[in-house]
Amino acid sequence: MQDVSKIAVLTSGGDSPGMNAAIRAVVRTALYHKLEVFGVYRGYQGMVEDDIMAMDSKSVANIIQRGGTILKTARSKDFLTPEGRKKAYENLKKRGINGLVVIGGDGSFRGARTFSAEFDIPCVGLPGTIDKDIGGTDLTIGFDTAVNTAVDAIDKIRDTMDAHDRVFVVEVMGRDAGYIALYSGIATGAENILIPETKTDMASVVNMLTEKEKRKKLVNLIVVAEGDDFGGGNYVGDYLKKHLPNADVRVCILGHIQRGGSPSCMDRLIASRMGYHAVECLLEKKYNVMVGVVNNRMHYTPLEEAVKAKQKLNSDWLKITRILAS
Ligand code: F6P
């Protein structure tokens, strides 16, 4: 395969705060190495539809602090087909693009793995997802901001919950992973944290709340991940209303506010660091890997493995949650 001389960068799947900082790092590192850089709009769909633009240093000015993604993002159906991927390849090829940086989650990496196996364009992935549901890295771009947004919102809910002696169920994002629920729940002193990684036993949640009612424990906060096996916030709320008739139960679904907003310092830092290393990887011929950070060191996972690996939940957190909720 020829040396990488022209690269493209895209964001794909759900956006996450810090994606802009990563785009900026990729573009500026590439320019530093005298590579040509292109931005692909709307993820893989833009690659299929030839929505590709040359980028320079100015194109990424004043974006490090902005949420969302200036390149926009999408979940492309066309790219799932061999015809779609062929079109995408031809659109890159006609510009001489011979390296691709994909910022996104596991679905985006599956696309990159298939594409790089079919065509002579190496890919490097950067983990951009608020869910922190990708193995091979301790950190994903956007998680820190999202979890802090959740903490800020739950702190506010606690004020009104406390004022009314209510039971509050707060649903946070996390389709397959409970990290946002776990971290925001512990940080806000939740009595129960319900996550997809563990079986939810609503009978014991009710028992716990009944015990607390006897002890006149006033604040009862339950943080639930949207992907929890019981079905998410509304299901949990309905169950509690039915089984705790004396309790005043309210449900709040935080939703997409967790995906927006200015990225935290931590997300800007990891996005900058990962973006820089993505380009270095392409130059050093470390092809088809996901750039991660493990124990504060750069860590490279073959895309093939990255699409399978899930982050394991540290059982310490679950124990701490149980003890602190008593
Ligand atoms: O980006 C991950 C995520 O935020 C999940 O936690 C959530 O289930 C999903 O995206 C929501 O996706 P959409 O914005 O397409 O509704």
In short:
With 326 residues, this protein is α/β, with parallel strands linked by helices. It is built from eleven helices and eleven strands.
Strand order of the largest sheet: 3-2-1-4-5-10-11
Rounded to an integer in angstroms, the radius of gyration calculated over CA atoms is 22 Å
**CATH fold annotation of the largest domain:** Rossmann fold
The CATH class assignment of the largest domain is Alpha Beta
Unreliable segments of 5+ consecutive residues: none
Average pLDDT metric: 95
What structural class should be given to the helix and strand makeup? alpha/beta
| Integer tally of domains | 2
Biggest sheet, open or closed, and with what strands and sense? Answer: 7 strands, mixed
